[in-house]
Amino acid sequence: MNEMTPIPRPLGKGFLVVQVTTANTAIPLSGATVIISRDEPESADVLYQLRSGEDGRTERVELSAPPRIDSQRPSAEPPYTTYNIEVRMPQYQTALYRAVPIFDGITSMQQANLVPLPENGFPDDFTLQGPRIYDEREPGRVEGG
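and the corresponding structure tokens:
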């Protein structure tokens, strides 16, 4: 009996730049820590740990994604891979972006707008406690821990 071995799918590559700002995107933040990891519960490995530059942007990083050709035919699999992005900076509330899609051959720009903590450095009744969580699976919804 002949057994068919599945042919591994070739991987494409997409790119990501994170723009870190405050004041509703008006002021770029330099020196923020940006952590990019897989959006997979069983394998949430950190892929990159970066710092934002003077312009608030990280360097462009390469991430794997399904090949572009997959988006041109019907499939149960989405034509992108999702990643999580955590952005931290002292005196600002941490922001976590879940399920950020990356497509083959495309440079994606993720805007990360950080909210300053009060002067004492601790959340108060008017500031959400814990990280601000943005989930691309539920656009427009923001959670605060």
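(Above: one complete record from the training split.) The CA atoms of residues 133 and 143 lie 5 Å apart.
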